[in-house]
Sequence to fold (305 residues):
Amino acid sequence: MSESLDKLHNRILSDARLKAAGIVEQAEEKSKQILEDAKAQAQRDANDILSRASLEAESIRRSILSSRIRTNRLRILDEKNKIVQGVLKSVEQRLSDIANTDQFEPTLKRLVLEAVEAVGTDNTLVKVGFRNTQKKNLQSLGQSLPKGTKLLADDTPIDDLGGVVANDPEGKTIFNNSFKARIERLDNQLLATIASTIFG
Amino acid sequence: MSGIEAVRKIVETEGQAKRIVEEAQSRAEEILARASEEAQKVRQTSTAEAEQRKVQMLRETRDKAEADARSSDVETDSLLGNYKKLFENRKDDAAKKAVKLVLGG
Fold:
């Protein structure tokens, strides 16, 4: 009786220990899995943070560089513009002084004929005004003008730089062929010519 | 051994067995709690390290971009400094062409 009771006692304890070992082993397995999962998730989180950081860094880099590069491009454009404007001033000066050159007569003739043709009527009135010009310079022009054209010499340069203005007798049609007006009409072409000659 | 004594001993043994299992359960709970704690630490450490690397990455990128921008400034300064010399001799040619264009000849 006592022997079988001992066996039962040992069996009960042995079963309990086996069950306990199983519980602990299961917990350890689960614990291992929890840690592995956590490490994998941590790696994914870190990758995500670094991936977003990489995008943010690229955005910061672009923002800093594009802003500065834009500013520097503007500085260069501004300088180029100053150079072109300087050349334009020089062009205006040369045009303003044209009466002192041998280009004056052919130029005057061309401006007047263009203006008369543009107005397109008989008895056109042509006002001529250049800096440092004398009336005798205009005399040769009179012979080459269409019949009925009346020439008026102005003491002051037309539109500051000089040129001619033609109109019909009623003053309804006016064609401004002053240097200033021609510069305005040729604005884009002039800028392109100057810029391409200087900057290539 | 009397029958009553035998029953008492079995009851005691059952109690002992129950305690063994309960202790194991308690230990299992501790193991899982520690694992959860450790897992949280692993994630926190990893996130903190990644955030630190992010800060460093952004700082390095900003520094490098600023350095590149300064280099662009220096390059532009040098370019602008040379502009006068570079284009001075072409201005007269440009003015002549422009005058010719205006005169229409």
In short: Chain B has a mean pLDDT of 94. Helices of chain B lie at 3-103. Chain B has one domain: 1-105.
